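Q: What would this complex look like in 3D?
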Amino acid sequence: MATDLDAGTTTRGTSTVADLQAFLDGERPDRRSAFDRLANDARRFLSAYLRRVCPATELLHDDVVQEALLRVWAARDRLEDRGPGAWYCLLKRVADRCHIDAVRTRAHQAELQDETPEDVPDDDEPLIDAIARALDTEDAVARIRREADTLWLGVPPDLSDEERERRRLALHLLYVDRFPWQDVVRMLGEPAPSRRELDDWARDPATIRLAAFDRLHMDGEALAAWMQDAARSRDAWSEAERTVLAWRLARGLTLDQIERRSDCPLNHGELAALDDRWRALLPFESWMRELVSALQTARVAGAPAVLSELGLWQRLAFAYRYADELPHRDIHDRTAPPASVVGRTITMGMLNVWLSNARLVERLARRLAAGTEENCHERPA
Amino acid sequence: MNDLPEGERDLAPATASVLDALIAALLVSAGAAAAGAFTAEACVRYLCGKASLEEVAAVRRAMLRDAEIRRRVRAALHRLDDLRSMPWAQARNEALAEGWDGQVAAAWIAFSTEGAANLAQARARWSGEAWGRLHEMALQGAAEATAAWEAFRAFAAASVAALPAPAPAMVRGGAMGVGGLPLRGMPQGCDVESASATVGPTGALAIGLCLRAGEGASLPTSARVELQGPADVWPLAEPPLIDGALQATIEGFGAATGLPEGPVPPGLVVVDLGVHAGQATLRVALPGGRGATEVPLEEPPRIENGMLRLALELRESLLTLYPGSRLVLRLLGAPHGQAIASWPLSELGLGWNRLSVPAPDLGSGAAAALTAEIVEGTPS
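A: Here is my prediction, written as structure tokens for the whole assembly.
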């Protein structure tokens, strides 16, 4: 194929459903541009898929994705449009075959999976299709976050993102900072809430869980920056340690990946020691103590019980796994200590149950799919 | 919400991996929600209710992220209260200070000066153009006309939201005209025969006023129609009175204010009969919600080389009614305005007073962004 599939910069202007129709209709003049957009999405999807099912062959993934897209393009006249669910199942199938071929070709036999990859059962395709359609919107990411907040934190689904922010902020200003309510009203901006509204917002269990989630979920870059600052008042990091911390936290590399780098400035023992050191500095437990203490000082009844509910910890596990792609152990390090403050035990076993076999995602996906069906039902016939 | 549901069949591993990858592909590539920079400028605009959507999001997210930012925003809130009431020259000096306080002061000086300049320009535009023409130009997208139109719309929205405002009929020397049209500065010995302010089917505001002079009284020959805001007025028109009768039509008024066809809410539109054609005046708000009075000026106030110069005539009544009070000059254009300077009335004399104080350069029409008030007591 003469086209450059590495471009990867096409901006999506239409939906997957519309692009599939254009791509699979041989008469359409915009067939090629539709495929370019589909290929951009497919690249992200297949990379995420391969990282999950065959992490050991990470170095082959880019080639596998490229080869899979070439094969799909080559087969374009034999494909039929059966919706986005079938499209993603097809991509998975083709990528599985390309992966096997690549492993064989590169003589990585030892890393080849024991079993031939399974296809998605026909019964499950409608579920994937419903979810793919539900996410086939401009604001898909915001929608996932909102649905996750509703599912696990109990946030009312009709509450706008702005209102969620204002309520969380109200809690911080009133209870954590203990500013006078008159100042808080002015700091929240228009429309100004009454004092009663302020109290209702800040004491609402959903707001309390949202505020805790906010405090306890920190992306890698923010955590890396925090670590650099935190160490200033203690033992300063060496230049080499700073470099490794940036790889580890901001770029999300595992210790193995760092150790394999030719430019890694630390040896195995130093890497392990550094890993222990930054883990010991993680701030989440002390932040949770501060929040609980602030809520208790403000006499918010039952705050520890609200914070010990599993939903909050599942929401955190979901965010750390799917937005930050952390391994289970890292998620455990960020959730178990603060959970213990409110009497909740989070074990590696629990995380495995939640995160393996996509149990959390399945719940969210079914919710998204149900929402789509509801929306469809609301449309006039 | 709390736990995984029991009894739901497990997904096939292949299905699970596709779902997993679908969600991860979206979330990982999205990253964290983008947050703009938190700056003193954004903070000041946020606290004044004038921030863009991006700035609002940036300030709120910064506050959520960092307790130190929350402390800074609160400090800025109180700083703005102080800055608004201190003389402009002092506020400008505060802006030279280092640190967060200095940054807030600098941002406020820039923000309030820009607001005042825009307001002055917009009002100058209003007085220089016919209403209908300005509306038409705004609809066509002419930048200056659009800015002027939007400035008036914002003023009108605040005016309508503040209803019911203290009726200017309570103004000293004022009277509630027939039909809910308050009149200010009614000459002694004159009566109102009829008065009305109505939005017509095309959205035009029609003002009708008919005065009758008693024996020995003389009818006024000029008037100013004003939209009454929460703390200020916006001049709408200066029609002549011919034999005590005034007729004025203001096209596009309904569209600008959002008022429906019918009588204008009482107190929203005021006719000032104390205005003499060609006479420059300064509207001075009186303390305790007692309305306002017009103080004659030798000429419209002007700001040259960073100095505001004005000559105003104080009458005995003002000096004797408010002993121990101050005359405060303020710049409009930003929420709650910015003080320019204040003088104890006891230090001002009867008759003409020539005042000169540092003020920001606002370009032409500075007078339109200037207001004055009598404030009881001395500054704390």
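A: To summarize the key features: Chain A touches chain B through 69 residues (CB under 8 Å). Chain A has three domains: 16-134, 140-216+284-373, 220-281.
Q: Very helpful, thank you.
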